[in-house]
Amino acid sequence: MRPTVRAWNLAGTATVLSVRPDGYGHALAFAPDGRTLATSGGLDGSGQLIDLATGASTTFTGHGGGIEVLAYSPDGTLASGSVDSTIRLWRDPVLTLEPRASYVTALAFSPDGTTLATSSERAVRLWDPASGRHRATLFGPEEHVTQLAFSPDGRTLVAAGHDGAVRWWELG
């Protein structure tokens, strides 16, 4: 059974768009301009970009397993993390980051787009998305990280763990 993605006008109750992407639709992310929605695809490692004005979709492929998480940078670069233990930055050229750990459980870009935080198990890694250079590894909650978020000024990173713990770091 294919999932249905629906968009609503919050000023009312009317559905403004209803599409059925391929795959299981596990992860979603809006592009910064609000015109495109990225969705994860199937176990084949594909995803879809859905034009919210028309409902038309474009498939992107490259992972060796299902996409678990998606995030857009402020400049519109899409990041995807997969059960194949890779992170891909979808731009020209595509940049693949390999944290050498289990599958990727969370992604977040800093508000200025200069840092990408990723998590695998209980480690949080900070990357330079322009070069792909690994900057630092931070250790978070006792169980795997389920969510990452930067503060609006980008100086604080917060990680939530499967164990219910929340950990934060002052990045400077």
TrEMBL record:
The UniProt record lists the keyword RNA-binding: no
Keywords, in A-Z order: WD repeat
WD repeats: 60-90, 97-137, 138-172
Metal-binding keyword on record: no
Cross-referenced Gene3D superfamilies: YVTN repeat-like/Quinoprotein amine dehydrogenase
Highest taxon, organism lineage: Bacteria
Family annotation (InterPro entries): Quinoprotein_ADH-like_sf, WD40/YVTN_repeat-like_dom_sf, WD40_rpt
Protein name per its UniProtKB record: WD40 repeat protein
